[in-house]
Request: fold
Amino acid sequence: MNPKISIIVPVYKVEAYIHHCINSILTQTFTDFEVILINDGSPDKCGEICDYYATIDPRVIVIHKVNGGQASARNAGLDIARGEYIGFVDSDDYIDHDMFELLYKNAKQYDADVTECGINIVKDCSIEPIQNNNEFENGDNLVALKGYLNNGYRNCVWNKLYKKEIFETLRFPNKLYEDGFLAFKIYYLTKKYIFIGKSKYYYIQRINSTMSKQESFSLRNLDGLECHEERYHFLRERINEPSVLTLSEFHFFLAILTAYQNLLNNTQIDPDKRYRNDLKNKIEKNYDDFLLNPNLKKFYPLVKSSKLSINVFNFIFMNYMNGLNYLLRTYSTFRELYNFKLNNKS
Reply:
């Protein structure tokens, strides 16, 4: 007989955390589950630890595979999952003893495709609850998408329970921010969505984790922008709800600006402004839509300047983002621009 829930846990170099993680799953008040531990070629003792838990609890299934990244590990778990519902836990995190009972109870009661709870951010010795407000959301895919676009933490795949059918045609891409590439597709497919404002998932904010490595920007970080762009076009082609589309468009534009700023701060990655020029052209390509978005009013000068050369746009961007009021300093700014353009003709 198949279990009610399959809990997928990708494992890689988390020897100091994995016991706490697995124990928090095995001691759940809801007991009808399988936990799939995917040892993604971890070079430490994580593989041995996974095998140990399989010897003491028949609900534990272990997969050993060549390292391929978190996305491939999760996909390997999805490929063999037998549960009616799917849950994910990262192997350096842990969960409250009743998280899956709470999620499963509400998933069954409301026949929900996605059921979600709040989270706790654990950093050093402090715990910060996120959306621990006892609020309850019940709605369709538009409700799910609005909540997701208004709250970045709903982008993650953990702290949720999914009907298995959601993943019939979906798998994680081998990219940075792989959760993001899947989240909007999941929410779009959701017919019934439930959010429970109780923080039951504990996310450990590690200094050397993937999500916290913001200081070492590389071109791979542009995957984040690709995710926003893909989401923007995906939703525009499929729904007509203005509140969702303007939010998606707003985040896409901010992702362009963030990527541009990171390239400015790391000019050795983009010495000939090739990637910055690509970003400028993305703004120009979506020029009319960006100018109609009420959430982007304060960025209209940057949108309009996207039609200028990359050198001029670069100049305006640096000054505008440093706090200059472009609208009130039109004359002096354009005088400087004129001189700047002359100097860059040679």
In short: Residues 5-204 form a domain with the Spore Coat Polysaccharide Biosynthesis Protein SpsA; Chain A fold (CATH 3.90.550.10).
